[in-house]
Amino acid sequence: MQTQRPTRAAPLASLALATLLQTPAPAQSGSPDIAWIVPADGAFQAGANWDGGSPPGPTQNARFALPLAHTVVFLNNAANAALRLDGDANTTLNLAGRSYALGAPTSISIAELPNASTSLHIRNGAVASQNIHVGAVEGSTGALLISAAALTASQDLFLPRAEHASATLGIAEGASLSARTIYLGFDDGSHGAALVHGPGSTLAASLDLIVGQFGDATLETLGGARSSCQNFAVGRAATSTGHARVAGVGSELFTIFKLSVGSGFGAGASLEIADGAAARSLFGVVAEFQSSAAHVAIRGAGSLWDVEDALYIGYRSSGSLSVEQGARLESRFAVLGRYSGGAGHVRVMHAGSRWHNEQRIDVGVPPGGASSLYVDRDASVHSATVHIGPLGTLAGEGAIEARVLNAGVHRPGPDASNGAAAAPGVGVVLGDYAILSGGALEIDLQGETPGVEHDLLAVAGAITLGGELRVFAPAGFDPPLGAAFRIAVANSIDGRFHRIALPELPWPRRLTVEQGPDFLELRCALRSPTELMDLLAPTEPARGPLAAKQSP
Q1: Residues 212, 188: contact at Cβ < 8 Å?
Q2: What is the DSSP string of 451-484?
Q3: How far apart are CA 247 and CA 470, in angstroms?
Q4: Collapsing DSSP states into helix, strand and coil, what is residue 227?
């Protein structure tokens, strides 16, 4: 509710007359306006409080325009064509347990004048309506607050409705608002913000809940509240940005079908699930359309995004997702980088964080773009299969509880994110591991201690070799003769690398690869006698055309 404005010097009757003479938006469906004329608290059914001496009836509009904070109390149930607020009205409707029915196509219209700042607070009862416009005209500012009440719209909610308008929505004290489609930030240059707060407070759309249609918007669902819909979209079009946050134990964002973050061309969007809250959906899509940029963060013990079926990160553009601080992500199958231009990046970070996927995770598999999966120490990813495609990267020290097919790049150990230098570590695979043709295992070599001074791949099942081994060492790396570096251990190791790239050591030493039945080692050894003889043998100067002409 807005702060009460100071009383003006003009007499109250003159003030009321001046307000009523302002040019309002067109009346709803031709219904006449009956204006509230007393700038003080009063009863809805008291005729003296209304222009004309009687309250508005079922075919008339109730209009509030006086620029003072006041409360209107209902003594009985009421019905009007529409409820309209403009100017700087700051009106509270205390239904006192009664019901209020509004039948016009646009049943509630708040802030119908440019540059106006208008608010409506509905308390303690039930309101039935059709369309609701908050911030109804260009340049206006509107607010709708619902507490301990139920507001039902058979059609749509626009927050705001007009270009360059601003609107806020608050739902608290177990209140509820339901509509067919809910638009936050509907038009170009508009700003919409909604807060659903407290146990039992709900925001529900029977079809779509859109956070940032063409304008900018935020939605927060906090403190045990619930937001629900059939489809949830954050950042719907090129001119929009959308940010949604669900936080607190018992708070929930429930989507029957698709939850999409960055769902429109060129949109910017984010979703945060934090502090024990949950989001649930059948499908999840991050960066759905070209040129969008989208991020999802799941943070804190007990926080969960449960995707019942498919999860796409970087569907047609750049999308990222982080599972942090003991949070969980669940899905049936997942793709990181789905189509051309799609780049998906997932980071599972901090102790206890976990991604549980039932079937398969594809990372950077064409036609998708460059994508990555990073799993931090003491975090984990579970899946039947993790497929690292030709454009994919797997990194980190966390446990991969899966069969891993590597046709891309695998870098055990911490990655070089956020400007930090890459460091050796242990990559853990609790399943079988295969390096496919075109795939590479990259090992960072700095000293002899496995997992501390050089990377180690630890596989609980079998390793099948193929692809390439790439070993990197810092400049000046000079291990002693006979030094051994165990870079992989497994239940069994079969096959051979197709290619091996090793760093050069100071003469006359070199690195060799030794493959045992259950281990791979690099050793510092002398170069072979053949190599030494080839290097010591004199080389005859090349004879070119000029030399041939000078011959006798």
Answers
A1: no
A2: TTTB-EEEESSEEEE-SEEEEE--TT--PPTT-E
A3: 44
A4: strand
Token pair for residue 89?
């009205």
Q: Give the contacts of 383 (CB within 8 A, at least 6 positions apart).
A: 334, 355, 356, 357, 358, 359, 360, 361, 401, 402
Q: How far apart are CA 224 and CA 247, in angstroms?
A: 8
Helices assigned H by DSSP within 459-528: none
| Residues in a beta bridge with 286 | 261, 313
Strand, helix or coil at 241?
strand
Q: How far apart are CA 456 and CA 487, in angstroms?
A: 4
Query: What is the identity of the amino acid at 486?
Result: R
**C-alpha dihedral, 512 to 515 to 518 to 521, nearest 10°:** 0
CA distance 502 to 479: 14
The one-letter code for the residue type at 469 is L
Q: Supply φ then ψ for residue 19, to 5 degrees.
A: -65, -40
- Calpha distance 110→157 (Å, rounded): 12
Residue whose structure tokens are 């079922």: 58
End-to-end alpha carbon distance in the chain: 109
Is 361 in contact with 336 (CB distance < 8 Å)?
yes
Those residues with Cβ within 8 angstroms of residue 549's Cβ, 6 or more apart along the chain or in another chain: none
Q: How far is CA 268 from CA 190, 263, 294, in A?
A: 15, 9, 6
Please state whether beta strands 426-429 and 33-35 pair in parallel, antiparallel, or not at all (unpaired): unpaired
Print pLDDT tens along the chain (552 aa).
333 323 323 333 333 333 333 333 443 447 899 999 999 999 999 999 999 999 999 999 999 999 989 999 999 999 999 999 999 999 999 999 999 999 999 999 999 988 889 999 999 999 999 999 999 999 999 999 999 999 999 999 999 999 999 999 999 999 999 999 999 999 999 999 999 999 999 999 999 999 999 999 999 999 999 999 999 999 998 889 999 999 999 999 999 999 999 988 888 999 999 999 999 999 999 999 888 899 999 999 999 999 999 999 999 999 999 999 999 999 999 999 999 999 999 999 999 999 999 999 999 999 999 999 999 999 999 999 999 999 999 999 999 999 999 999 999 988 755 444 568 999 999 999 999 999 999 999 999 999 899 999 999 999 999 999 999 999 999 999 999 999 999 999 999 999 999 999 998 999 999 999 999 999 999 987 776 565 555 554 443 333 332 332
Contacts of 528 (CB under 8 A, 6+ apart): none
Q: 384: helix, coil or strand?
A: strand
Q: Cβ(348)–Cβ(379) under 8 Å? A: yes
How far apart, in whole angstroms, are the C-alpha atoms of residue 278 and residue 411?
A: 32
* Residue showing tokens 């979209």: 233
Its sign, for the CA torsion 491, 494, 497, 503, is: positive
**CA dist 179 to 126, 152, 252, 259, Å?**
14, 6, 18, 18
Q: How many CB atoms lie within 10 A of CB 21?
A: 8
